[in-house]
Design brief:
This protein is mainly beta. It contains 6 helices and 28 strands.
Length: 433
């Protein structure tokens, strides 16, 4: 024991010197160095604080932020280090509201490295946050391709007409300029319903993929578009002869219906192809025109839709037909006739007819040009007055070969004197023995 304690200061100094030499040897053999480690993932903590406050957030630089660190340690330690040996977190509860910066804390996962040996190139991650809102948008239709020739879309309906989008106000909702349902109509020849996905565009026409945005939801991502697909046909508008005859008969005496003028002579109708095969014209029936007491032109507005078969409609703007029936006053002309046919005469009566015999005929002024009196037949029928002596005013039966000339019956009369023959005296003759 005394030997151990002998010269102990020298022995202690020797031990200390040996340790120092050992450290020097170790440092020279395994020197301290600095290693830069890239792309250490940064995990965000307490992000629910933002979502609970109705906020949406984005991370500057990308949704999966990373940090670059520098580690100071011996070469043997640094040799085996990579990004997976460190844990980087950014606690949102420590965010500086004005700038949105959240400090990054990096901890080593290996005991050979301490936090003090780590330094960060970027000490924080920047978070941008904004309000989450819900907004309604009208849905528009965007056609793709064309219908076959002869077909057209008469009407379309969208269900629902408006959809709601919930998402970040500035980066998503406020940037939406239009919502479009794209409808492919190629090959459509009949009415149908189509389920259509929605497309979202900015005001400048750029398409937006809402699925790529955080906290964004389309509350109705599809709509139903109902299409009425019709074909079209041009048909004549015809006023039936029965309708014109009825109107002509209603015009008072002394006037005549002369002609008709229509605002249109053809119309375009629409409907299913099978329905259009059933219609060749739009016919205006009898009873459509009331010409009672008409002494001048008269215009009627006809609702053509009333005369269409079921399932057929008029193209827009062609519903009303204006028909004008023209009426002119007749001119009365007096004529002296030379040839009078008398019927019903009795052999034992004589008849004196007052001369001249005149008749009255009505027609349009222009129709009298070239009028031939030889085309008129005038008959005096003595009838029951043939054997009744006396003076009578009897009617004349006046007939015109052309119906545009109308005899005025109440003025077509003649005075007739009926006389019996005087009995003649028998001369004396020889009698029969």
């Amino acid at each position: 024991m005394n030997k151990l304690l002998r010269n102990w200061p020298l022995k202690l100094a020797a031990v200390i010197l040996a340790v120092i030499v050992w450290f020097i040897i170790m440092i020279l053999a395994d020197p301290t160095d600095v290693k830069t480690i890239y792309n250490v993932p940064v995990r965000l903590l307490n992000t629910q604080m933002l979502t609970q406050a109705g906020k949406s957030y984005t991370v500057e630089g990308g949704e999966e932020p990373t940090v670059t660190i520098r580690v100071s340690a011996s070469g043997s330690v640094l040799r085996d280090l990579d990004a997976s040996d460190f844990s980087a977190v950014a606690d949102v509860s420590k965010m500086f509201d004005v700038t949105g910066q959240v400090p990054i804390e990096v901890l080593p996962l290996k005991p050979t490295v301490t936090a003090a040996q780590i330094s960060l190139n970027t000490p924080s991650v920047t978070i941008h946050y904004e309000n989450i809102i819900t907004k309604e948008f009208d849905v528009e239709i965007q056609w793709r391709n064309k219908l076959p020739d002869g077909y057209f879309i008469d009407s379309q309906r969208i269900t629902p007409q408006r959809i709601r989008v919930r998402g970040p106000e500035e980066t998503v909702v406020s940037r939406i300029g239009s919502v479009v349902a794209e409808v492919d109509v190629s090959g459509l020849t009949e009415s149908t319903q189509l389920d259509c996905s929605l497309l979202f565009y900015t005001d400048s026409g750029q398409i937006m993929n809402l699925e790529s945005y955080r906290d964004t939801q389309v509350l109705q991502d599809k709509v139903t578009v109902s299409l009425d697909v019709f074909t079209m046909k041009t048909v004549p508008v015809v006023i039936s002869q029965e309708a014109l005859d009825a109107a002509r008969a209603q015009v008072p005496e002394g006037y005549r219906y002369t002609r008709t003028q229509q605002s249109v002579t053809t119309v375009q109708v629409k409907g299913l192809l099978s329905r259009l095969a059933d219609i060749s014209a739009v016919s205006i029936p009898a009873g459509s025109f009331n010409m009672q007491g008409a002494t001048e032109d008269k215009t009627f507005t006809i609702d053509l839709a009333k005369y269409l078969p079921a399932g057929i409609e008029l193209m827009s703007g062609q519903e009303a037909l204006e028909v004008t029936l023209f009426v002119e006053a007749l001119t009365l002309r007096e004529f002296e006739i030379k040839n009078l046919e008398v019927i019903g005469e009795k052999s034992n009566y004589s008849y004196e007819i007052q001369k001249p015999v005149r008749i009255f005929i009505q027609a349009l002024e222009a129709d009298f040009v070239g009028f031939d009196l030889d085309s008129v037949s005038v008959i005096l029928d003595l009838g029951e007055y043939a054997d009744r002596p006396g003076e009578y005013t009897l009617p004349l039966t006046v007939s015109c070969s052309d119906t545009i000339f109308t005899p005025l019956d109440e003025k077509n009369t003649v005075k007739v004197t009926v006389k019996p023959h005087e009995p003649s005296a028998n001369p004396m003759g020889r009698g029969n023995d």
